[in-house]
């Protein structure tokens, strides 16, 4: 039996896992938080955006229902959290599209940091890690078993933005892409669709660093200790409140800290020979969305890509489309 070709691109970030599926007649997307907690037993009721999975005889809860303390601050992606989130994304997309794992040939694209991508050994190790060293394996999503055999994984680098999604429009142009993620900010300049090797760099100036600074400020200024869960809401809301009282002063302080954090992102780029002269500038990643007001003030002529949190993902899928002719 000839198996149906299925393309799946996964952008597994420290904050969120985003994935997209495309086949001849189906298309689906899934997004969930990159948080995982090992649990004692199966059969947990899960809400939308959360999943109960089993892998290697262990049960895990993933996604929104997991406390922020289970977020990863590990620089490497070669950890079980990322592997299991990728497998969760794959099986969730198969579930959404009603595709059977045994009837499809999955061509998968997964991301690694730009620094790891530049090392061929590290890149191959991660490919083997995600492919389970070529061995088939059983994975259960919300009680539904999937027998997966991943033999065609393409490793792509973070910081691509929409370069490959808009290949025709960007041909002949120079574009600097700044990808503000949860843990890192990635920088890369492209000549057309070709990355300039020496421009590839990464800083640790992700949004999680900003959250830590805001937490320290609130503790020192208002004498209150905040948890990782609190910080997530504070950054989303743009202010700090306690016992129902909104501290108006916190609004301006948080905006100032966001602006300072963005300036640090820009100064890091300049320290790596980014002049921003005669290039189009694209901001992508979930952090670009959170810092959009600041970016527009500091770089009014730059482009904050629409839905910046899935910009990389669209290019990953385009790479698979070109590679496999779908």
UniProtKB/TrEMBL annotation:
This is ParM/StbA family protein. Pfam families: ALP_N, MreB-like_C. InterPro entries: ALP_N, ATPase_NBD, MreB-like_C. Residues 177-296 form the Actin homologue MreB-like C-terminal domain. Residues 9-161 form the Actin-like protein N-terminal domain.
